[in-house]
UniProtKB/TrEMBL annotation:
GO terms for cellular component: nucleus. This is Calmodulin-binding protein 60 a. Residues 1-28 are annotated as: Disordered. Keywords: Activator, DNA-binding, Nucleus, Transcription, Transcription regulation. Residues 1-24 have a biased composition (Basic and acidic residues). Residues 320-382 form the Calmodulin binding protein C-terminal domain. Residues 92-237 form the Calmodulin binding protein-like N-terminal domain.
Amino acid sequence: MSMKRQPQEDPKPRHDGGGSSDDKRRRRVPSLRSVIMEVVNMRRVQHFMEPVLEPLIRRVVKEEVELALRKYMTTIKRNCGKDVYACELRSLKLKFLDVISPPVFTGTRIEGEESSLKVALVDAHTGQVVSSGPESCAKVEIVVLEGDFDGDDGDNWTAEEFKNNIVREREGKKPLLAGDAFLYLKEGIGWVSDISFTDNSSWTRSRKFRLGARLADSFEGISVQEAKTESFIVRDHRGELYKKHHPPSLSDEVWRLEKIGKEGAFHRRLSKERVNTVKDFLTLLYLDPTRLRNVLGTGMSTKMWEVTVEHAQTCLLDKKVYLYYSSGSVQKTGVVFNIVGQVMGLLPECQFVSADKLSETQKDDARNLVICAFRHWEEVVSFEDESSLMDWVMQISAVQFSSNSSMMGSSDANDNVLTSQKISRTDYQHLSASTLDIMPSFCSIAGFSSLDDYVLHGIDNMDVRFDQPLNFPVKTPTP
């Protein structure tokens, strides 16, 4: 029979409040077995987790580093601004240096208002022409664009938008541009060669065209924006036969003036009254504007009349002026006018009074004198310009003053009067002879025979004639 071991009593008695401090310390210290097991378990976990944790940690660390680097580079770019951008990509753009001269007709060379159409390659930031580098000699293509093509801000568009707005010829038609549509820049500038349109713009959505320019070459690290002109209408070539001239010339047919259509109602009215040229129109305008207004009739409104007159008055005239002295009165007065009969002033007693200082009555008298001058053109004196006229007037005034002074101190006043008259008459006749041979008659340059029928018909009964060569009045002193 087995014997049960009796439990041994603790050598020290226990207290009601708990065990001693040594007992507590003994209970907290793990056993050797548990420590060994824990170490074995940890190594087992490390053995299985290490292949999983290491790639995960590496990936997380890599992403964090890359994110930090991107933030750092963004900060640098933001601080450096355009300098960093310029280093990455140079921004250039093409630009038309001229405005296309209207009107544009099919088959007619496209030109700028000042000269041939020019294209330049400029820096997008500074606007300076790129005159050096390989891009300054690049090849450029000229294309036709829709008239309503424009970027969101007027100057910004993508290459794709530009391409989508290029206009191609209609089916069965020739290419829109005839001639060489390519050019080469020289020091950043190129001239558009002899190109023209083969079709009008009436069939497009905007009824207008633009010209565009794009780089045919490409350069690494450089972006080049295309160029475009302002929109314009292209008309058929036959329309050129009816276009107006700005400014018109004196020899132009009268229908070249605005609001007067070729073979239209106004043209027929004017032709019936033998107003065939712009010169005829201006002459009648200055000599008898009421008559001209009545010829055109009520079909021409006041606004149309003003436009036509304004256009006619832009005609370029030479600087020559003409002088005519009346002989119908004792006190002779001269009238100064230009080639179309416009009064420029009066010369009473060799004292020039400009037209803007004349009264309405004086202006009417001056116009009547011009009409007399056209009737007696052989007595009209021409001068190269106003300055030469004034020099001549001063010479004549000096002669008269000298003659009057000598008369006051002479015993034979009548002889001095005759001498004075002879000098004045000789000077005038000399000028007349020198100018008549180079001054064509009014019949040939202004259509005197035609104007005589409808402008000057009212002066047929005027008793205006010269019985003797023209001379200047000299006052005879009272004896």
